[in-house]
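Hypothesis: this fold can be encoded by more than one sequence.
Test: take the structure tokens below, design a sequence, compare later.
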């Protein structure tokens, strides 16, 4: 007598329902972990970025001598312009660690009470040994003030009085990173305005490719990236908002920004792609670097007014900081977009009707099950139907998909190019589907045989590549956004 094998059939109605649930989840952009895109700024100065009276010994700090506003005022403006998180980052000088500990930190605590709906971090613009500046973001803990004081008092190059040039060395910076990475709940660090001191295109100044590699090798969980778009973007505006023909975006006097972005980020196949081509988790951000608003005679926008760094996170200090650490980030100028979800997934073979393929999002890695597999890329962004702070409602004109190979460590640590990086596809409105404020783009990378990464950028302009920003350029007319990478590993 034959035995009968019983098969358990799944009703088509249940299959359809499951597919509908999946589709709805994708449509709303909701994360299974409850995370959402939260806008912020990790480089904001207050009145505790002091000036100095050098007639005294030691020099006496002059409140509001360099930056103008109270931390609570910065927090209020950040909230007004749509930020969910912010880092207060005052830079130093002789014995400034005492100013931070005794005056700036109490002001941070007051601002947290005054604007409780803003996730406010305590940090500083670290006077980086042998380099320019870095944003140092301190985890919110009971000892956060002591943690920052320990770093600044021991390692900030401008801290000692009398001045001590031995503090301004690469060795000092490496020792600082070793100290920082071993802290309980270590901070996160981004290099600020990396090519502002560059003498020309690819002719570096205070910040170099070798330094970034050394930092990342020493503390890969701390030194994780640089500002893609620097602050001071209102440099071409006068106090009325009219254009100043001699004004410069970002204060980049020697070699200008490109679409508001630093050349280290804006050049396809440049330094950022070189770092990614080594497989480094090296992220980009955008900030205000606010000192004084342009209407008060400065060169700055308020936090969130023009530049935003979005982090996919739950709205709390810990998850936002970990989102920054792990690259769940995109950044944008002029509120061109407000959401950007990118996923990659290995395409299932045609014969496989039901696949449970893994996927990866921004900041993550997809490991393929077979060499030469196709990889489906899904891009979903929100182009908000709303006016930005300038009263404009800019529209996304084009999205570029950039891809490069991951080939391993470079022999020459000054390397600043990745010849494999290129724009593999440009998408305009003829390539995408639009549903209200949301744009969806689908694309397949065929026969992926090498370790690679992808990243995105987009613009409201017709420029194929971001052009060098001339003096007097209107920052509101030249808008871009950049995603951070997704890595694809071929086994």
């Amino acid at each position: 007598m034959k035995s009968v094998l019983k098969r358990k059939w799944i009703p088509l109605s249940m299959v359809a329902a499951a597919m509908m649930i999946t589709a709805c989840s994708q449509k709303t952009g909701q994360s299974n972990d409850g995370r959402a895109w939260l806008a912020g700024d990790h480089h904001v100065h207050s009145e505790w970025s002091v000036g100095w009276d050098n007639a005294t010994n030691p020099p006496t700090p002059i409140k509001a001598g360099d930056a103008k506003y109270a931390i609570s005022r910065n927090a209020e403006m950040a909230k007004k312009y749509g930020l969910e998180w912010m880092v207060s980052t005052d830079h130093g000088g002789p014995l400034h660690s005492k100013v931070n500990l005794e005056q700036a930190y109490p002001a941070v605590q007051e601002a947290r009470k005054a604007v409780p709906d803003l996730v406010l971090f305590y940090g500083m613009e670290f006077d980086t040994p042998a380099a320019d500046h870095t944003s140092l973001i301190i985890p919110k803990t009971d000892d956060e003030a002591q943690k920052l004081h320990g770093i600044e008092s021991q390692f900030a190059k401008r801290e000692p009085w009398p001045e001590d040039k031995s503090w301004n060395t690469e060795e000092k910076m490496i020792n600082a990173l070793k100290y920082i990475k071993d802290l309980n709940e270590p901070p996160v660090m981004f290099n600020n305005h990396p090519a502002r001191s560059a003498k020309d295109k690819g002719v570096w100044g205070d910040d170099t490719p070798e330094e970034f590699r050394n930092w990342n090798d020493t503390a890969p969980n701390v030194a994780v990236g640089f500002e893609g778009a620097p602050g001071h973007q209102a440099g071409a505006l006068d106090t009325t908002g009219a254009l100043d023909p001699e004004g410069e975006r970002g204060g980049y006097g020697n070699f200008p920004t490109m679409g508001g972005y630093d050349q280290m980020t804006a050049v396809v196949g440049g330094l950022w792609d070189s770092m990614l081509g080594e497989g480094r988790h090296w992220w980009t951000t955008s900030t205000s670097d606010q000192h004084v608003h342009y209407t008060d005679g400065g060169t700055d926008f308020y936090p969130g007014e023009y530049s935003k760094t979005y982090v996919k996170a739950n709205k709390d200090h810990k998850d936002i900081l970990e989102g920054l650490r792990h690259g769940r980030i995109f950044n944008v100028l002029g509120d061109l977009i407000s959401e950007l979800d990118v996923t990659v997934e290995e395409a299932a073979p045609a014969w496989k009707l039901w696949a449970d393929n893994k996927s990866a999002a921004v900041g993550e890695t997809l490991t393929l099950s077979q060499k030469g597999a196709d990889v489906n890329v899904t891009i979903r962004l929100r182009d908000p139907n709303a006016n930005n702070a300038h009263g404009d409602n800019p529209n996304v004109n084009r999205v570029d998909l950039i891809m490069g190979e991951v080939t391993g460590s470079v022999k020459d640590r000054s390397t600043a190019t990745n010849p494999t990086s290129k724009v593999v596809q440009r998408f305009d409105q003829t390539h995408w589907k639009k549903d209200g404020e949301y744009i969806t783009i689908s694309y397949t990378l065929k026969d992926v045989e090498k370790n690679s990464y992808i990243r995105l950028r987009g613009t409201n302009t017709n420029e194929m590549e971001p052009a060098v920003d001339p003096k007097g350029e209107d920052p509101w007319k030249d808008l871009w956004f950049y995603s951070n990478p997704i890595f694809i590993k071929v086994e």
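The radius of gyration is 24 Å. The CA atoms of residues 123 and 290 lie 14 Å apart.
Hypothesis status: open.
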